[in-house]
Amino acid sequence: MKVLVATEKPFAAVAVNDIRKIIESAGHEFALLEKYTDKAQLIEAVADADALIVRSDKVTADVIEAAGKLKIVVRAGAGYDNLDLDACTRRGIVAMNTPGQNSNAVAELAIAMMIYMSRNCFTPGTGHEIMCKTVGIQAYGNVGRLVAMKAKALGMNVMAFDPFIPVERIKDEGVTPAESLEQMYSSCDFISLHIPATPQTKGSIGYDLISRMPKGGCLVNTARKEVINEPELIKVLEERPDLKYVTDVAAACQDELNEKFGNRVFATSKKMGAETLEANINAGLAAAHQIVAYFEDGCTKFQVNK
Ligand code: 3PG
After folding, report:
1. Atom 3, ligand 1: which residue's CA is nearest?
2. Whose CA is nearest to atom 5 of ligand 1?
3. What are 212-238's pLDDT values in tens digits?
4. Which of 53, 101, 138, 288 could bond 19 through an S-S bridge, CB–CB 3.0 to 4.6 Å?
5. Which residues make beta-bridge pairs with 5?
6. Which CATH number is 103-267 given?
């Protein structure tokens, strides 16, 4: 079987090399398309691929259509909003992610962003410490739990809201379950977003929630830009000169945000939450193992289009 790794944003060379070894030692062929600049290159490369490993690369219906032999696609990472699951399902292609494999890297970045914004983006002037501040974790999954653990170790108070996780589990981990999303936003100096981009969450973080944050509050987005209602974010930042927004997923209107709000906003120039050697190795190798296991035993443990 031919396994194509197609990553516009490449894995570290060490990870690529180890992915290659896993694929080849299982008797498969390895192919690599990195740093491509045009979707046409991806469309051409998938034509004879039996399996595909991607990161945030957009695997849209036209890519699936061009991949006549494709049997499995693995998103090496958590969020799979970049895969057209319906197109995969129509063609009988198994789609998977590698949950948890890059979570620590993202959680570390979320904490770093809180400190960065508390210290005026590392520009001169008096800032704040994060110790004794309260952070609210929106979605208590793999990343959210790790942010909670690190925040507690730094002396922060931690709240969490996740309608899909039993309150008792949150309590058992020394985290205060929020009664509602509104209550959490009203009570927290920082809100750290860890929700996926779904039809239910897209545009869901807007004026009503953000304006509830106490004086000096900071919204931290290492999740997806689509969850933010951008016009409402601008409105609330205009009305509340004390609030801040920091993100690893630049807004569509990021230039406007930077121009209007200066050091009260910050966006990384390219999403870097999972950009560590450790996360590249964890997620990349997991993807390779999942493909080998699928071809060997039909294992579909991490399938997301069941
Ligand atoms: C994820 O969903 O796993 C993260 O957003 C990482 O995305 P990346 O692989 O594009 O860095």
Report:
1. 77
2. 79
3. 999 999 999 999 999 999 999 999 999
4. 288
5. 32, 53
6. 3.40.50.720
